[in-house]
Amino acid sequence: MEEYERSPTHVMRYHQHPDGLMAVKSLPAATPKPGSGKREQNKVANRSAILAAASKCFLKMGYDAVTIRDVVRDSGLAAGTFYNYFTDKDALFKAVLEARINEVNESMHAVRMKSTTIEDFLYGAFQALFSKIAADPSFFRLILRNETAVLSLFENTVIGIPMRTLKEDFSDAIARGVFPEIDIELLAAACYGMGFELGRVLAFTRKPDAAATAHFATTLMTNGISGFGIAKTASAAKRRQGEVPIRGSLP
Question: N or C end of the chain: smaller count of CB under 10 Å?
Answer without folding.
Answer: C
